[in-house]
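Lay summary. Proteins are chains of building blocks that fold into shapes, and those shapes determine what they do. In this project we predict the shape from the chain. Here is one chain we studied, written as its sequence of building blocks.
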Amino acid sequence: MTGTATFAFRYLPSPIGRLTLVAGDEGLAAILWENDRPGRVRLGPLVPAPDHPVLNEAERQLRAYFGRELTAFNVPLSFTGTDFQKQVWRALLTIPYGEVRSYSDIARQIGKPAAVRAVGAANGRNPISIIAPCHRVVGMDGSLTGFAGGLEAKDYLLTLEGRRPAAITGDLFATAG
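And here is the predicted shape, written in a compact code that computers can read:
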């Protein structure tokens, strides 16, 4: 988002690097990666907020997720993007913990089966990674594909959730034991 809106932020150390949590007036607006591509998520000015209620809750839930104590998030979200992007991001929220979908699956789910590349592009601009689980979207053959946090982070998150990507196990539906 561009303009005069101000966003609160704080850093969160995590097993996959330092994350930047960003909140607007209506909820969590972004989780940015340590080496995020500039401009991938458009936001207004960021101001440090050591005690913002949405950031407090997002941090609590992310810590529980990384500690394998949480499988579903319920922090309020505030997506900023095009209508199509928001449709894709809402579809991401329906992917259950420990499961994966292909870009084609998401395109079909939103009623646009030919929009596989556009779904991939929207997935790559997902501002609220992890909570809107774009890491759960893989190639048709189950292989790991692009991820703003890097493929190592994507593999880590899938493994945390009990999945081993097909590129590693050779079986899209295998789970780690």
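What the prediction tells us: Residues 53-66 form the longest helix (14 residues).
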